[in-house]
Amino acid sequence: MKTKIVFLGGYLGAGKTTLAFHVARALHDQGKSVSVVLNDQGNVLVDTQFMKNAGVDVSEVIGACFCTKFDEFVKNARSLVAMGRPDVILAEPIGTSTSLMSSVIVPMKSLYGNEFHVCPLIVVVDGPKALIEMEQSDGLAFTTRKMIPAHQMNEAEVIVVSKTDLMSDDERRSIVKRLNAQLTDVKIIEFSSTDQRNISDILNIINSDQETAKLAPKVDQRIFSAEKSSMGWYSVSCKLSSGDGKVDVYAMLTNIMKGISTRFKTEDVAHVKVLFSSTAAGAKISLVEGSIQIDDLKGGRYFQGEGDFVLNSRVRSPPQPLQLAIEGIMETVFSNSGITVTEKKTACFIPKPDSPKHV
Ligand SMILES: Nc1nc2c(ncn2[C@@H]2O[C@H](COP(=O)(O)OP(=O)(O)OP(=O)(O)O)[C@@H](O)[C@H]2O)c(=O)[nH]1
Ligand SMILES: [Mg+2]
């Protein structure tokens, strides 16, 4: 049996990592071994730390998209096979990826189809957000600032509509109807991380013989440049020390997110995620547009001593003002809690344009 590779695409904050985690766990429960490969522009990733903390086997291709780092992705997948022969590799591309089908999946199948079984492309779509967009634009012709998520849906062979727990029955019916009207030959699956509804439909696709078969939609990638270059990426990792005091982890992280959410326009915050881990307490919180969500709480609510802090943000803003704003907010929150910061590493940039190995 060849190792299966499943690409879980979708826009920033759509729910890719959350889905990957649930799928990995469900496959594991079926007795299958799973590895996750994450792809991002940054260097210290909240998603990687989250997966590791959850006991998932995870590795990274970082610094550029899978399309630019195609050879590194193949090398990574081969080394996973050489080391442990996972039954399934779940690959999460960068949320702004726009040439997944043409520059990664099609070449993966045509060049390495004898080594890997490449499953149909699954694209995760944020249900509540997509419904608002589709109601406003009456279709997939999203505004010029939102061409990337619309294009990603066009590439999909399977669409997983996430966050359906946040939608009414009518809203769920409406998004499925609208997607079906706009897209042909796409299987649509409603999902929620709260109850993992319909996860068996996703597992059935992965466990079946179905391979990717879609032709890549022909699109001049330059149309996405303005949208991609409007997004600043700022990441920070550091050690936090509480000294002799006790710090409320939940309040600390929530106050940082509230500060960011107040500082930037709701629609400009694509995804900010923050993770703290220490021996006594850990938490992960996400901010997608205006919505703050606690993804994980571990141990107690307070920490004393040292812990590790990581924050990744992707916000429609030039990078330097983004860095200044977030660092100012963090400084205020940390000093109010009596925290000292050491070993701080930051990265702040607009990603370079993709240069796919295969087009
Ligand atoms: N209520 C609800 N929240 C969800 C669901 N799926 C994901 N989320 C939340 O959405 C936020 C973003 O989820 P992620 O899985 O990190 O999204 P992502 O697509 O991996 O984001 P990037 O890696 O930044 O592109 C987190 O707060 C998740 O908990 C869902 O089905 N229901
Ligand atoms: Mg992710």
Description:
Helix content is 36%, strand content 29%. With 359 residues, the chain is α/β, with parallel strands linked by helices. The protein has 2 domains: 3-225, 3-Layer(aba) Sandwich (Rossmann fold); 230-349, TT1725-like (Alpha-Beta Plaits, 2-Layer Sandwich), CATH 3.30.70. The strands form 3 sheets. Strands 1, 2, 3, 4, 5, 6, 7 and 8 form an 8-stranded parallel beta sheet that branches. It has a 6-stranded antiparallel beta sheet with strand order 13-12-11-15-9-16, sandwiched between helices. The radius of gyration is 20 Å and the shape is globular. The model has no long low-confidence stretch (mean pLDDT 95). The structure holds guanosine-5'-triphosphate and magnesium ion. Magnesium ion binds next to helix 1. Magnesium ion binds at residues 16-17, 47, 92.
Unreliable stretches (pLDDT < 50, length at least 5) are none
CATH superfamily of the largest domain, by name, is: P-loop containing nucleotide triphosphate hydrolases
CATH topology title of the largest domain: Rossmann fold
Note the main sheet: 8 strands, parallel
Assign a percent range to the helix content: 25-40%
Listing every helix as H and every strand as E from the N terminus to the C terminus, the arrangement reads: EHEHEHEHEEHHEHEHHEEHEEEEEHE
Residue share in β-strands = 25-35%
Instruction: Give the assembly state of these chains.
Output: single chain
Overall pLDDT metric: 95
Give the termini separation: 29 Å
How many beta-strand elements? 16
For the CA atoms, what is the radius of gyration?
20 Å
Number of helices: 11
| Dominant shape | globular
Tell me which ligands are bound: guanosine-5'-triphosphate, magnesium ion
Number of domains: 2
